Amino acid sequence: MIDRSTSQKSASANFIQPGPIAISDGTVNYAQAVDVIRHRLNLDRAQSEALDALMREVGMVSELVETNVDDLSARFQGIAEKARQQTSMIELLTATASTTSNDEEDIALTEVAENIAESFSDLISKIVYLSSRGVSMVYTLDDVIAALKTVDRTILQIDKINNQTNLLALNAKIEAARAGEAGHGFAVVADEVRELAKTVNSMSSQLKMQIQSITGGLTKSYDLLREIATLDLSEQNLFANERIKRMMTKIISQHQSFADALVESSDVTRQMTTDIQHAIIAMQFQDRAKQRLQDVSAGLKCLGDSLRATSEKANDIETYIDSIDEAAVEHWTDSLIDSVTLGEIRERLQQKLRPGSPQNDRPVADDDAGIELF
Amino acid sequence: MRIKTSTTGNTFEARLSDRLTFADHQAFREMIQQVTTTGAKEFVLELSELVSIDSAGLGMFVIAMESGSKNGWSLTLKAPRPSVKQLLLLAKFDKLVTLVD
User: Which of A3, A233, A275, A298 has its CA at 20 to 30 Å from residue A252's CA atom?
Assistant: First the structure.
């Protein structure tokens, strides 16, 4: 408590004159007290500057954390997106690995194996049918050759008859010679008959040659048809079929293992995506830290402002002393608490600065519910 | 190939043995003609003694089947050995004629 009753003001120096000041259990020189206050106010100015500097540091730290956390979040988002893409690709791969396709549709590998077996079976059926046509043609050739043999026998008979005709003509000519002049005409006829027999003989020879030629051609065709109709199916083709079946079974089993591995890989990638998403959510602590730092900053500003406002009065101590108000501390405490937005911090400040007083009923952000966005 | 034939009622049965190949086409044809001549309604080819068969042999079965359709008798392939049966199934004879064990 300052005893103003003994103080005197100087009109020229605007300075409080020295005099006794009662402080609790004794008195000190008034001028000394003013020096102490001035010293204190100067210290306030220096401290307010220091607080400004520290606030800027706090702000910079907050920005640094925010920038880096944003960068990390963006990178994690990128990783999560890539992991999702990888999952999709693996799923696509899993779907395509077990199928193949022709021009129109996708075919499962198991169906491919069945198709190959079916195609092989169709091929064998067609070969058998082709063989049956070959054998049929051979039967037809057999009939033709048999008919040609009949023709050949008929020609032999014609030859026999022709020989007899020739002999008869010769006998006729001999008999005509015996008859003398009377048989002359008959001899001419006998000569003509012999000429006819010769011609028939010549034609018969030509016919025999042609039949031999045709039979030779048919025999060659016969051999060709045998080659076409004959294919040993009993062993190698059956083995080929078995080999194809074994190969396809192996391919299907390999593809199944492949598909299983892909499904597993897809699950792992999906789990990775979930973990990364959790990491991204966890990194949102930065928002809470930022809010706290902002409150700290606001509190420091309030402190700095108060120090600055007081220190500005160092040059006019009297006015300052006049302006001292018991309620000023209360007002300053209110403004400090009001500068804080997070209820949690405000509550702690209340407990520290006004122990035992009721809670400020100003609405506050509920930081217990998680991240505060403002 | 060797052929042993027998007739029971409307059934003409031929037991084939050894190998059925192109070389047997003449004998096979005569056998088919014989089935038609006897007026049988069913021709049973008993194959238990047949060791192997080539494509011409299978082709002759097709000819027998066609001849049967034309002349009013049906063809049955009976008791083939596993290797011959596998070949008959591969060539889809089970869909063309009656195949019995």
Answer: A233
Q: Mean pLDDT throughout A348-358?
A: 81
Per-residue pLDDT at A370: 44
User: Please, which residues have CB within 8 angstroms of residue B68's CB and are 6 or more apart in sequence?
Assistant: B35, B43, B74, B75
pLDDT-derived band at A362 (thresholds 50, 70, 90) equals low
Q: What is the mean pLDDT of residues B13-36?
A: 94
Under the banding of pLDDT at 50, 70 and 90, the label for residue A292 is confident
List the domain range (segments joined by +) for residue B48.
2-100
Interface of A with B (CB under 8 A): 120-121, 124-125, 127-136, 138-139, 142, 226, 229-235, 237-238, 241
Q: Do A124 and B54 touch (CB under 8 A)?
A: no
How far is CA B91 from its chain centroid? 15
What ipTM, to 2 d.p.?
0.92
CATH code for position B51: 3.30.750.24
Mean pLDDT of A268-294: 86
CA–CA dist A84, A93 (Å, integer) = 14
Task: State whether residue B17 is helix, strand or coil.
Answer: strand
- Decide: pTM greater than 0.80: no
Q: Give the count of domains, chain B.
A: 1
Mutate to test the interface with A, among B22, B32, B33, B52 (most CBs of A within 10 A): B22
Q: Could you tell me where the DSSP H helices lie in chain A?
A: 30-97, 109-178, 184-229, 236-282, 285-311, 317-323, 327-338, 343-353
Instruction: Name every residue whose Cβ is closer than 8 Å to that of residue A180 and which is 6 or more positions away in sequence.
Output: none
- Tell me the one-letter amino acid at A183: G
DSSP B73: -
Strand partners of residue B5: B14
| Domain assignments of chain A as residue spans, ordered by start | 107-231
| Paired tokens of B36 | 């038609």
Tell me which long-range contacts B69-77 makes (C-beta under 8 A, separation of at least 24).
B71/B35, B71/B36, B72/B41, B73/B12, B73/B35, B73/B36, B73/B40, B73/B41, B73/B42, B73/B43, B74/B41, B74/B42, B74/B43, B74/B98, B75/B43, B75/B45, B76/B42, B76/B43, B76/B44, B76/B45, B76/B100, B77/B45, B77/B47
Half-sphere exposure of residue A43: CA atoms within 13 angstroms, side-chain side:
6
Report the CATH superfamily, name and number, of domain A107-231.
Methyl-accepting chemotaxis protein (1.10.287.950)
CB-CB: which of A121, A134, A241 is closest to B59?
A134
A73-124 confidence digits (pLDDT tens): 888 888 888 888 888 888 888 777 777 766 667 777 778 878 888 888 898 8
> What's the mean pLDDT when you consider all of chain B?
93
For the record, the structure tokens of A331 come out as 């007002």
